[in-house]
Design brief:
Strand content: under 5%
CATH class: Mainly Alpha
CATH architecture: Orthogonal Bundle
CATH superfamily: TTHA0068-like
Radius of gyration: 14 Å
Order of helices and strands: HHHHEEH
Distance between the termini: 22 Å
Largest sheet: 2 strands, antiparallel
Oligomer: single chain
Structural class: mainly alpha
Number of domains: 1
Helix content: 55-70%
């Protein structure tokens, strides 16, 4: 599968914590995509990105909602998709979803936002 250069740019933005910028980059690709499977994949990644944007702004309800949408959209995809370790990323999203839901219930124990996940390719450990 051919990857759009913007996809790599979006991953770099996500991994740098530039979630708003990543959203814009991935949304461009998503809007142009005609393949339904890829369109759904990009949309799921956008939900993850928006979820982390909300999380870093302490909008825990928004983060929770976006993470759930991402899990619903991406849960049926293979473990690795478009060279992305998708299962690993979704496991991280589930972990942060739990933290966001606890935070909504005022159970903020240690919401360390310094260890947010990265989107990893199959070439990375």
């Amino acid at each position: 599968m051919h990857k759009d250069e913007r996809f790599t740019k979006g991953i770099d933005e996500f991994n740098s914590g530039l979630f708003f910028e990543c959203h814009d980059t991935l949304e461009e690709i998503w809007n142009e995509e005609r393949n339904p499977e890829l369109k759904k994949f990009y949309h799921g990644l956008i939900h993850i990105t928006v979820g982390f944007y909300h999380l870093t702004n302490h909008n825990f309800r928004g983060a929770s909602s976006q993470f759930k949408k991402a899990i619903d959209k991406l849960g049926t995809y293979p473990r690795v998709y478009m060279d992305i370790k998708l299962e690993e990323l979704l496991n991280e999203v589930k972990f942060w979803l739990e933290k966001a839901e606890r935070a909504m219930n005022r159970e903020v124990e240690n919401l360390n936002l310094e260890n947010l996940p990265k989107i990893k390719s199959i070439d990375e450990k």
